[in-house]
Amino acid sequence: MDALEQEFAAKRAELAGAESRLVERELDFATLLLEWRTFERRYLRQVGAKLAEIDEVEAEIKEEHRRRNPSDWLARRLALEARAKARESTGVVNNSAPPPPRQAKTPEEKVEPSENIKALYRAVAKRVHPDLSTDDAERASRTSAMADANHAYLEGSGARLRALLEHWTGSPDVVGEGTAVELTRTVRKINQATARLSAVEAAIAALGRSDLTQLRLKALAERLEGRDLLDELALALDRHVRALRQQSQAARADAV
Amino acid sequence: MSPVDARSVTGDEPDDVAAMIARSSDLVRRGLRLLEGPAVRHELAAELVRRAKADDVVAQRKLGLAYASGEGVPRNDREAAFWFQRSAGHGDADAQANLGWAYALGLGVEKSDAQALAWWRKAAEQGHADNQMELAWVYAYGFCVPEDAREAARWYRRAAEQGHPEAQSFLGWCYVTGRGVPKDRIEAHKWITLAVLRARLWDTVLGAEQQKALVATMSAEEIDEARERVKQWVDTFGRTAI
Question: Which residues, at least 6 apart from B46, have a Cβ–Cβ distance to it below 8 Å?
């Protein structure tokens, strides 16, 4: 084996390692995203909606105060600010992510797609991942195939993953152009896969650091003790909303 | 360009994660704070201070309002003006309007009509109807500036065209009285009708009485024409306006 062939063999082994690491982390990322969004949705519906309601009533109170003090610049500016805040909170709650078709029973727990789905996802990712190919002409179609695979995975659709796998069977990389060309191609794939891997790692870390993840971990700990954190939060906020509504009604009654 | 940048955005991409997290982060932080014990007001203020110091322009503006009103922090006009100034300097339109008031009334800064007007203009020129409305008032009542009915009508119009009910009502009144615009009963009727149609509870709009008085001076043709113009306005701007 000459030096070139030896280097090629080493690079091929390196690529195989990078490929498996990338596919595994893509899978972790997709799973984490599913868990994160599922929890976010439940949080926004149960707790976020109450917070938005609080903002709404607070805006009403400030607007009532403004109405009674038409020449007070501060009353006016505070009312505008409160209204903008209420509009923003309501917008976030109303635009929360649509539910995945398979709702987990306890969303703060791990949403575990079946091993079968995971295996299918790995197989599809290995075949279609745009960073595991050097065919520039195919880049766009591979990117969208990978996005399809992610969606199919998030929705737990084995059928769509299988369809992708079958569709992409006949797209092997061009071979037989000599070792030097193949070596260049292999090195490029390693670089692409490594760059993508660090982007995925960064995204996984950002999700892990997020406040929502903190909240989800607390919810998980509470569930082990048989309590439901989001229910408790919603209940506490309910009391707050009621108190505010009374305050708002009192302010209006005063005005009459 | 790295291969990662070349990807299309699908919403599931690593690059989109920061935006996804940011979208709900305010509501999530409020939930976390609730868990940390009763929402003590000074803790909220502490977070606002932290964000304001990190050059978050919205937090700077809100902190300014907190100091100006004494909500959650002891009232302090100098601090209020300081944070309005920081946020306004970064281009926040609402902070610019607030800073205008600080200069107009000498709250935490040396009173200066020229500075007040300069900041109100900056705010209004950014296009928010509420800020345009305030500038119009200032000209209409000659507050900090020589009274200027034409300039007032010009800014009422800019806010009115965005669907701001108070501005529509004031612009209508300009047409009734001929202040800043030629007297025009049809235009007056149009804007006042639009204002009444769109008024929210807290808006100061001319009520039924004034409208009745105006109608009494108009012919049936004039009223029809005004109604037609209302319809046209709603068809053209009405759907996108506030």
Answer: none
pLDDT value of residue A102: 57
- How far is the alpha carbon of B82 from chain A, nearest alpha carbon, in Å? 16
Of A93, A202, A236, the CB nearest to B14: A202
Q: Do residues A89 and A51 lie in contact, with contact meaning Cβ atoms separated by under 8 Å?
A: yes
Rg (CA), chain B: 23
DSSP secondary structure letter of residue A113: -
A131 and B2 in contact by Cβ < 8 A?
A: no
> CA–CA separation, A31 vs A125, rounded Å?
14
Q: Which residue has the tokens 């982390």?
A: A25
Three-state SS annotation for chain B: CCCCCCCCCCCCCHHHHHHHHHHHHHHHHHHHHHHCCCCCHHHHHHHHHHHHHCCCHHHHHHHHHHHHHCCCCCCCHHHHHHHHHHHHHCCCHHHHHHHHHHHHHCCCCCCCHHHHHHHHHHHHHCCCHHHHHHHHHHHHHCCCCCCCHHHHHHHHHHHHHCCCHHHHHHHHHHHHHCCCCCCCHHHHHHHHHHHHHHCCCCCCCCCHHHHHHHHHCCCHHHHHHHHHHHHHHHHHHHCCCC
DSSP A48: I
Q: What percent of chain B has pLDDT over 90?
A: 60
Which of A194, A211, A235, A248 to mutate to test binding with chain B, by most B CBs within 10 Å of its CB?
A211
CB contacts, 8 Å: B4 with chain A: 195-196, 199
Residue A138 clears pLDDT 90, i.e. is over it: no
Q: What is the pLDDT of residues A53-104, one digit of tens each?
A: 999 999 999 999 988 888 899 999 999 999 999 999 999 999 876 665 554 4
Between the CA of residue A160 and those of A30, A81, A120, A154, what are the distances in Å? 16, 47, 10, 11
Express each pLDDT in B167-186 by its tens digit.
999 999 999 999 999 999 99
| A51 vs B contacts (CB less than 8 Å) | 27, 30-31
Q: What is the ipTM of this complex?
A: 0.85
**Given CA atoms B170, B176, B178, B182 in this order, what sign does their dihedral have?**
positive
CA closest to B104 among chain A residues: A73
* Partner-chain contact A233 B31, CB within 8 Å: yes
Cα B88 from Cα B99, distance rounded (Å): 7
Q: What is the pLDDT of residues A226-250, one digit of tens each?
A: 999 999 999 989 998 999 999 888 8
Is A40 in Cβ contact with B98 (below 8 Å)?
A: no
pLDDT of residue B4: 37
